Amino acid sequence: MKPIDVFNHGRKRAEHLLKLAELLTNTRKRKMRSDWSKDFKKFMHWNQNEQIDRIDGTGAILILKESSQLSAKTFGDEYTSELLRAAHVTIVAALDRYCHELIASRFIKALKSTKTLTAELRKIELPIEDVHKAVMHAKNPRTRPLILVRASVQELLYKKTFQNSREIESGLLIIGVRRLWTGCATHMGCTAEDITTRLNKVAARRNKIVHEGDLVRHEKGGKLRQAKITPNQVAKEIIWLGEFVDAIEHSI
Question: CA 43, CA 35: separation in Å to the nearest integer?
């Protein structure tokens, strides 16, 4: 499994959540006609006394039974925007996991050569138990102790996050990737500052969603409300992060 495959898997999940938000957000302005409701229940062989509600999304119609305890009002922007927030968190998670896999996949190669044994790589501290296992395996010519070292490093990496510019830059330095932003900027046709600024904003919004419920900060006594989020905004972030990962692939 290649690192880019991991990212693309997460991207598809984010795009799926985005599509669900578009399908489930009610665009219907008028109340459902009683004759339409009657004909629909007749077609479905439902009891005419069954209370139903209708959701008209973008490319889909959803019919709610009374037993669902939901109504058309709960499929407005405020309700379905949670799917947009989930999509934002998912695409950032895809970037995070991509960086983890990229570092892990190149770690052994970097470790084998003194030319690629970076200062950042030298600073990695492994648990003594893992080091002992690797040393013991090294005594057996049939075993591959570096695989154990790699597994130990992976455990350390999974405790770190690679979401903002500082985290990603320091992570890729472990495997000898330098001048990351310059290379990505050339590929993306922008400046290095453009990339780091936008990346940090995306990561900050992710943290606001995950840790603060995306609630707008307010003075005491103010009304609780969430920050605005739109399908177009999330779609742009998914596309941009895809372009950023593609730039990393071409720059390392």
Answer: 12
